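User: I'm putting together notes for a lab meeting next week and I want to include a structural view of one of the chains we've been expressing. I don't have a solved structure, so I'd like a prediction I can at least talk through. The sequence is below, exactly as it appears in our construct file.
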Amino acid sequence: MQEIIEKLLVVQDRDRKILRVTQELAQIIPDRENLRSKASSTQSQWEAAKLRVKQIEAERKRLELEVDGKKTQIEKYLNQQLQTRKNEEYKALTHEIDMAKEAIVKIEDQEIVLMEQTEAAQKAVAVAATEAAAAKKLLDDQITKLDQREANLKQELTALTAERNTLISTVDEVIRSRYERLLKSKGENIVVGVEHSVCGGCHMKLPAQNVSSARAQMELVCCPNCGRILYFTRGMDLVHTD
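Assistant: Thanks for the context. Below is the predicted structure for the 242-residue chain, given as structure tokens.
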């Protein structure tokens, strides 16, 4: 029975490693998506900064066209003044000219503000571009590492699974079935030691008969409380201390 226990302990070790590798593999996908999300965020900030510059430039062009329109109106009014001989009409045209000039001044003030905004926006674009480039480089580097890590883990998982299947196939079918059932219900802690008359799995005190049977190693002994497979080695202490 000692030989079977030793085989089961080795299988259990492989199952634990398989679980660890599987968990690491499962984490790679969200890690990869998280990296891409961060890179996408900096890219979006860069695109937003460039869009802001375009919007400001479009507004400046609109104001320039508005100024040109006002200037055209002023020229028109001036020509009309030259042609009119009515004092009231001349004064009305003068008023329109003054209003157009005031409008031009206000528009030019807006243009100055937009020029300042353009400068700030262009600086923001430069910063965002640098951050986006750095984020992309970091993403590429880390994705490459993750991809390599994933490939290594898959290779390790394949080797562990093959080794595990070979090992478990040498165990008696009845015992193998019990182990597999426990693996599904108890997780990675299936074959446990007995020390101080306590089950190493559920930590409940064991009946004296179970303890003696585990020590004798003549048959497969399971914990009456949790069902885990028990074993005893010389390094363990059978005496229960209260």
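A couple of points you could mention at the meeting. The chain has a mean pLDDT of 91. The two ends are 30 Å apart (CA to CA).

User: Perfect, that's what I needed.
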